[in-house]
Amino acid sequence: MNKIRIGLVGLGRLGFKHAENISRVIKHAELKAVCSIVPDELGRAKAELGAVNCFTDYTEMLDKADLDAVAIVSSSDLHGAQTVEALNRGLHVFCEKPLGVSFQECLEVEKAVAEHKDLVFMLGFMRRYDPSYAYAKKKIDEGYIGRPILFRGYSVDPESAIGGALKYAAHSAGQFIDMGVHDIDLARWFLQSEPKSVYAIGGCFAHDEYAKYGDGDNVSALMQFENESMAFLLAGRTAPHGYNVETEIIGTKGQIRIGAVPQKNLVELFDQSGVTKECSQSFPERFHEAFANEMQEFVDCILEGRKPEVTVQDGVRSTQIAEWATQSFKNKELIKIG
Ligand code: NAI
Question: Which of 184, 241, 266, 321 is the most interior residue, by most CB within 10 Å?
Answer without folding.
Answer: 184
